[in-house]
Amino acid sequence: MAPTRQMSRPEESTLDLGEFTLKYRGDALPQPELLVIGKRSGRHKAVHTFVNILDNDGNLVRQAAITPDIASFIFGSFEVRGSTEAFNIYESDLVVGKWSPRTRTNVSPDLVRHQRTIAEQSFTATGGKLAHHWPIFQKLKETGFGSIIRATLTLHQLCSSNCPFCSTILRNKRDSVSLTEAQAFVSTLYNEQAALNRNEFVRYNEEYRRLTGTDIRLKGLILSGGGQPNLWPHFSEFVRWLGELDLDVGLITNGFPPKIAEDVYERFKWVRLSITPESASPFYPDGRFDRQYIPASLRHNDSLTVGLSYVYGPWTDDDMLKRLDASAHENGFRYVRLLTDCNLTRQAQLKAHQDLADRLFRLGFIDEVGKPLSRIFHQLKYHGSQREAEELWSDGQCKLQSYNVFWDTTGHEENGYSHCYPCDSVTVLADEQGETDISVSERRFNADKWGTVKSTEVHRLFTEPLQPFFDPRDICASCLFMNNNRAVSDLVKRASYGDMNLDTSLEHLNFP
Ligand code: SF4
């Protein structure tokens, strides 16, 4: 169907195409807005207020508010460039009013000013913590069976924010699970898996007990829920129930609804508060993230780790970065994790990493080799390539699936069950073979491509031998977890495990 465009006034226009409706509101305050609205039943929207203006080599020249001319330019190139790249505009194209493809300058990750710190390895999943669970990889090597020690649950699909980089903008708000379903899922990975390993994989289980103090079973659980898991109606009851298990639990949320009792948060091992562009979260008082409500139980509390997370993009100015750092100090938070938009393709993402690192250096947050000088650390996370995919997965098997499960509730309303996935990055896999051949990220969970087992059959991930449900060389070339995949491959290939050298400075070992 041909795109339909309606122009009422120069400062207001709408374009209907594919899975999205674009709506420009030039008279919005305090900045003009371009909304990208998903057409699926959720009708989630991303609010864009700024774009990147680039030189012909793709370097950032400036960030610009969205004028009617820029909006018109984005409308014209959106279908070809997709919902993320369309907001990176070459200045010379803007002058002539038409996008033209060009050859990108390749950025090598080595050119980004960066040092991988203990904080980055402890508070994100870089693969560095996997060795601390080595008996499960010896078990995998010798028996072919996986062991699920880490899980993430979305629980529902609600969020109060409208981030431009939303990874699940095409989700359905009604795909929610019940408390009983969530408890059954955890119980299977915790109790059933432990019993199986005690009875059938005795040697590995005993080695694992010596190393970690428990049977092989679920060790770390993250609640991440469509933006705000604490809006799920059973959140407090579920967290109290989890508190009775010997399990490390982490929380990722965009905010804290006031109706949740503050002591509920004390049951977490760690809490990560995602800070959105300030125009994207209507609940920020006066449009300021640092004026939002934060439970007293999370401030200056040394018994759990609290951190901030922020995605760098055209919406970021120096003041925002300074206030992020100040907020971490004022609230006694351990870190501020900065990363770039994962919906960008590999080369655009590496360029964004370069910009971010240079800006952090200019502001005095890192030194000239990228070492952090404050609580901010820069997570250098970027897409893999087809060449790496072919080398890494010669057997066609994603290795994350051997120890990790991500349960997303997409499809739950319609089917009464939903699916498990090896990771959460399948929603943001953007591939490029050149600027004219971009396959944009799906921005939703697609079980037909990346689903493994139904949520009601999660036991199959440890009662059946590890099997590929899809070939990652065909659909995951831009995987964001290639390091983790590589770490598993290396652990499985080891000739012996007695000489393992474990890094004792790492924290949060149950979230590898
Ligand atoms: S993106 Fe990577 S980790 Fe995720 S399913 Fe694909 S291969 Fe596995």
How many distinct folded domains? 2
Number of strands: 19
Characterize the biggest β-sheet.
9 strands, mixed
Which structural class best describes the helix and strand composition? alpha/beta
Q: Which percent band covers the strand fraction?
A: 15-25%
The CATH topology assignment of the largest domain is TIM Barrel
Span between termini: 46 Å
Number of helices, where a helix is a run of at least 4 consecutive DSSP H or I residues: 15
Strand order of the largest sheet: 15-14-13-12-11-10-9-16-17
Name the shape in a single word.
globular
The average pLDDT value, as a whole number, equals 92
CA radius of gyration is 23 Å
Estimate percent helicity.
Answer: 25-40%
CATH class of the largest domain: Alpha Beta
GO molecular function: catalytic activity; iron-sulfur cluster binding; metal ion binding
Cofactor: [4Fe-4S] cluster
Keywords: Iron, Iron-sulfur, Metal-binding, S-adenosyl-L-methionine
Protein name: Radical SAM protein
Task: Describe the structure in your own words.
With 512 residues, the chain is α/β, with parallel strands linked by helices. It folds into 2 domains: 4-96, no CATH class; 114-493, TIM Barrel (Alpha-Beta Barrel), CATH 3.20.20. Helices cover 29% and strands 18% of the residues. The protein is built from 15 helices and 19 strands. The strands form 4 sheets. It has a 9-stranded mixed beta sheet with strand order 15-14-13-12-11-10-9-16-17. A 5-stranded antiparallel beta sheet has the order 1-2-3-4-5, with helices on one face. Strands 7-6-8 form a 3-stranded mixed beta sheet, sandwiched between helices. The longest helix has 22 residues, at 179-200. It binds iron/sulfur cluster. Iron/sulfur cluster (SF4) binds next to loops. Iron/sulfur cluster is lined by residues 398, 400, 422-423, 425-426, 450, 472, 476, 479, 481.
